[in-house]
């Protein structure tokens, strides 16, 4: 009952925060920052309490795909909300808040209990998992910035006067932040892959090869786009599309097979 209450409470305030930001998206002064922070903070705290109660159970640690996804989502929400305190992120907030609300609500209907009685603390494994989680979160935020860049650029090319008086950030600022995040995320993904090859056995074993191949494919795309931008000034629609494809690949690598096994096939 506590899990359901926390999920619904967090979802409600994520929805309220989303609605407030969207209602002021094209207003010159933008959303009320204090109200946005209050609504999102209540949602974030409830989301955090949900994670604590979902992962740490009396039987052990529940590290199912859904719980890992909820944790990843929480990190992204906290990161984007923190960034919004200093930099304009008006277009990103309703996306991350809205997705968080959908994920929290959906988690109530998806069976996701995988209890581990003990967790063997392996320093190499901890390093690999931490780097992988950080890399994924940063790269997903970079992807959101890419989508934001494409949206603003497209509106400007169509000479939409409404965007000129909106609270959306300047195009060049979004582009600069996009490639900063992309560079950091790609570096973290590089370290995550290297740590996997160094500390883990069987990266190319039958049960893990799809994750390794998808992660390497995503790394190739991210690295290519990052180097292409810094060396040759690559930008525009093709770059945004490439970033989205790479994000899709790394998402499949991190969550795809586990979701199929745990949820669709019911192998707990």
UniProtKB/TrEMBL annotation:
One of its GO terms (molecular function) is heme binding. The chain crosses the membrane at residues 33-56, 68-85, 91-111, 123-151, 178-200, 212-232, 238-257. Residues 40-264 form the Cytochrome c assembly protein domain. The keyword Transmembrane applies. GO terms for biological process: cytochrome complex assembly. GO terms for cellular component: plasma membrane. PANTHER family: INNER MEMBRANE PROTEIN YPJD (PTHR38034:SF1). This is Cytochrome c assembly protein domain-containing protein.
């Amino acid at each position: 009952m506590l899990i359901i209450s926390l999920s619904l409470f967090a979802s409600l305030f994520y929805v309220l925060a989303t609605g407030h930001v969207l209602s002021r998206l094209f207003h010159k002064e933008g959303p009320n920052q204090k109200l946005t922070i209050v609504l999102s903070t209540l949602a974030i705290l409830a989301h955090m309490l949900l994670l604590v109660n979902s992962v740490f159970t009396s039987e052990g640690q529940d590290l199912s795909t859904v719980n890992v996804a909820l944790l990843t989502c929480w990190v992204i929400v906290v990161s984007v909300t923190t960034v919004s305190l200093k930099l304009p992120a008006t277009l990103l907030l309703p996306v991350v808040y809205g997705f968080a609300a959908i994920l929290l609500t959906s988690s109530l209907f998806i069976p996701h209990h995988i209890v581990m009685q003990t967790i063997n603390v392996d320093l190499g494994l901890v390093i690999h998992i931490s780097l992988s989680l950080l890399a994924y979160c940063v790269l997903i935020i970079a992807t959101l910035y890419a989508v934001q860049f494409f949206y603003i650029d497209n509106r400007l090319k169509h000479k939409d006067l409404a965007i000129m008086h909106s609270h959306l950030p300047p195009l060049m600022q979004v582009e600069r932040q996009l490639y900063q995040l992309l560079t950091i995320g790609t570096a973290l993904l590089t370290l995550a892959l290297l740590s996997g090859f160094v500390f883990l056995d069987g990266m190319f074993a039958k049960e893990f090869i799809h994750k390794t191949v998808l992660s390497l494919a995503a790394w190739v795309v991210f690295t290519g786009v990052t180097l292409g931008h810094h060396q040759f000034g690559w930008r525009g629609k093709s770059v945004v599309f490439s970033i989205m494809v790479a994000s899709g690949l790394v998402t499949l690598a991190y969550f795809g097979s586990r979701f199929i096994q745990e949820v669709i096939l019911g192998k707990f």
